[in-house]
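User: Hey, my collaborator sent me this sequence without any context and asked if I could get a structure. I don't really work with proteins. Can you help?
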Amino acid sequence: GVAIRTRAEFTLPIYTFGKVLAARRAAEAQMDVRKAEAKIADLKTRKEAAAIYWSWVMAQSYLDVIEPGMKQIDKAEEKLRDMLYEEKEGVSQKDLNKLLIEKEKIQYLYDRLLLQIDTLKSFITEVLGDNWAFADKEMVKQDFSKEEPELVKSMKENSPYAAYLQKGLDIYEKLYKFE
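Assistant: No problem. I've predicted the 3D structure and written it out in structure-token form, which is a compact way to encode the shape of the chain:
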């Protein structure tokens, strides 16, 4: 005859003094920490994108101020050259030289500003794509309906850093129970 023999053995802890449950809770808390870290990284990226965008808006505002000023300097140069040609009293070549030096300084700043605007624009386009150009260029002061203590309390409760800290403390507590 044919004989088959099998044996199965299971070991199940009857009572582990909460170690299994504490280990599971520690793992869940660790997952929550990773989620909070991801949220913090996302918020940092958004903050950097906003800072770059508003830097671009400010640079555009400077450009709006400098361009008319440069036109006025060109008019002043033309007028000064005419006055020198007519040999008007109180005007010298030294005045024209000073104006040309200042004009070159402003032109240098203008060129740097254009380079900065192009650099910021390329950063924004890299992050947001081409559709960002339709965004609003005006800076608007935000009105807060909450008072300072209420804002601080809200930030403490809703901050991903607060969640990160709380989850870290939870892990520490659960790991302590696990050991």
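In plain terms: Residues 80 and 86 are 10 Å apart (CA to CA). You can pass these tokens on to your collaborator as they are.
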